[in-house]
Write a structure and sequence with these properties.
The structure is a homodimer.
Chain A lengths: L4 H10 L4 E9 L2 H14 L13 H6 L2 E9 L2 E9 L7 H9 L8 E7 L2 H4 L8 H9 L6 E6 L6 H13 L4 E4 L11 H19 L4 E5 L7 H11 L3 E4 L1 H4 L2 H8 L7 E3 L5 H5 L4 E2 L1 H12 L3 E5 L9 H12 L9 E5 L7 H8 L4 E3 L11 H14 L1
Parallel strand pairs in A: 4-10, 5-6, 5-13, 6-7, 7-8, 8-9, 9-11, 11-12
Antiparallel strand pairs in A: 1-3, 1-4, 2-3
Helix pairs in contact in A: 7-8, 7-16, 8-9, 13-14
Chain lengths: 386, 386
Amino acid sequence: MEWSRESEDRLASFLGGERFRVWYLLSGDEARARAMAADICLEQTVEFPGDLVPPGLIKDAIVGRVESFGAAGPGLFRAGISFAVETAQSDIVQLLNVIYGNISIKPDIRVERLELPAGLLAGYSGPRFGREGLRKLLGVPGRPLTCTALKPMGLSPGEIAGQAYRFALGGIDIIKDDHGIQDQVFCPFEERVARCAEAVDRANRETGLRSVYMANVTGRMDRIQASARRAKELGAGALLLCPSLTGFDALRLLAEDRAIDLPVMAHPSFGGVMATSGTSGIAHPTLYGTLMRLCGADATVYPNFGGRFSFTKEECVGIAGATSERLGSLKPIFPAPGGGMTPERTAEMLDVYGKDFILLVGAGLHRNGPDLTANARQLLGMLERM
Amino acid sequence: MEWSRESEDRLASFLGGERFRVWYLLSGDEARARAMAADICLEQTVEFPGDLVPPGLIKDAIVGRVESFGAAGPGLFRAGISFAVETAQSDIVQLLNVIYGNISIKPDIRVERLELPAGLLAGYSGPRFGREGLRKLLGVPGRPLTCTALKPMGLSPGEIAGQAYRFALGGIDIIKDDHGIQDQVFCPFEERVARCAEAVDRANRETGLRSVYMANVTGRMDRIQASARRAKELGAGALLLCPSLTGFDALRLLAEDRAIDLPVMAHPSFGGVMATSGTSGIAHPTLYGTLMRLCGADATVYPNFGGRFSFTKEECVGIAGATSERLGSLKPIFPAPGGGMTPERTAEMLDVYGKDFILLVGAGLHRNGPDLTANARQLLGMLERM
């Protein structure tokens, strides 16, 4: 196999030498792990057997490069593999393709961490609001933010809006659609968003607070952006999106759209296996922290430890860490642990997360009886006393 | 907890009684599996504790319903759970959300199979070409179709187009971009697609055959449709998309767009964990067969057994089965097993798949020496003798 001088020269003219690094955890014995690391270098780039790649720039710079390799535990190895930024610079879709495209089909390879240099981060404006922007918008300088979900699926827009009003009266900062409430015939998007936005606005006028209604815009690819713009027109103050259902780039599109200019919360629906698959997938902090933030989420929902899901405390702390660690000049975002949270767990969460998190309590706010405003006030009172 | 009469009446006016069914495989002992089945019914719909859902239509019709439950193997149970079509009728995104949204985060729940009634299938036009349409387009009535990938990443558009020309001269039916070749600076989409389409067209004029160049349109959400239309203008004869990277709805959008009117092949990049995660995720036939077809893929790529990936023969046969089993009036599509395939494995594949599959040989066509046309002719000759 040989390729033309023209092709080689052209490639040389475009490669700047900058590389991003992916840390992979590889399960197996050392020989197998070393073979897997070598295989990743080919599979994620040239998809060509190594012996068919002739000497030259493709072999030297396009094929991934094992920069480091070492033990990471019993039967576990860590490989740091670098790729030329030009292989994945075009968009998040291609970045994910190089990081974990074909190898997602191969067992025992897990993406642990990313190291993204300036040349790659330059393509991402990241979160529009971030922690500081969201606090300012909501007028909540110090304590954890509060969030609840409008539910259950099956209620009419009027009933949902009634809930929104009562939660807003009680002072909940972010009142979001449950992620399963979308554009069903019994609760269509347009009517629901209009009524909920109006309800929260009315409550705000009564309380003097700045609660926001967060509309779920997860849906058809060709409608997400229009839905978000429409939600804004109708008075929604924030947006909810499930990137694993819509594709991660939808998040980027919403965050970058100046006509929308609303905070976006990422919800983990459909993508859970990516984190929970043990020796495969993408580590929790990278998936829910780094990637959501890179795509422009201002807050990232994930199931808190000790709730009705399976994440460990360590995994949750890792996610929270990734929401604020240095990532170029991208703003830190809010971790939003939820999933069966109750007001009673607030103290423990403050202890683990500090004050920079979104306390997401859904059904837990219905547990103490039908007066949602009172239940919300009780939660806020508890938070403010802490 | 109580909800208004108005809300209940409104819901009643919209529910037609039709339900779709999802078969879940649940790992654990029977008590745990039964509890998981009950939990799925709530988690995927109301996201509300069962004891907080009052009697009424939400409890009766919106909450999922365990229709059947039984043993499926040692420590494995199968639950058939039905959901009202109205919970998920709006689009594929919401359908996936109800089928496997939040429970993707819970271990030991695997989607085995879907049973989609007319009221739900009515929202999907499915594959535009299907097996018959693709055979007609390519002028290949009987034998398996052939497909190869232009690679490796790093080559210039001119070099890639040269490959395309030589493969087309050799009679390969579908000459596709490698899924990692996207819109890199060293091989930009516009220039590559124009040159490859021209090259294949030129070869067709020489051979009298009807090879097509398949352009990879995987990329930013706001560019996929435009890229596909542009590819068509430039002369591409088919499209490649990675739905797990772009969101499944991108596939539907391409398939439904009359201005595009090109066959679409779905590639499994990034979504592998969904199938390979064992006791979680979505079973191979449903993920690569049913869902890709539902969204409108005319062909679905997956790693063949015995190649460089890990799928078993049974899993592959299951996928092929799902590409043609009855799915409303949706056309059967082509299974496209690939991933380290060589011409030598053709006989075995014919034996397993019959003649209705796409023989996807990538690097295997480079193995026998640099004359790609000769290598392609050898493959076609072998196929035609069988």
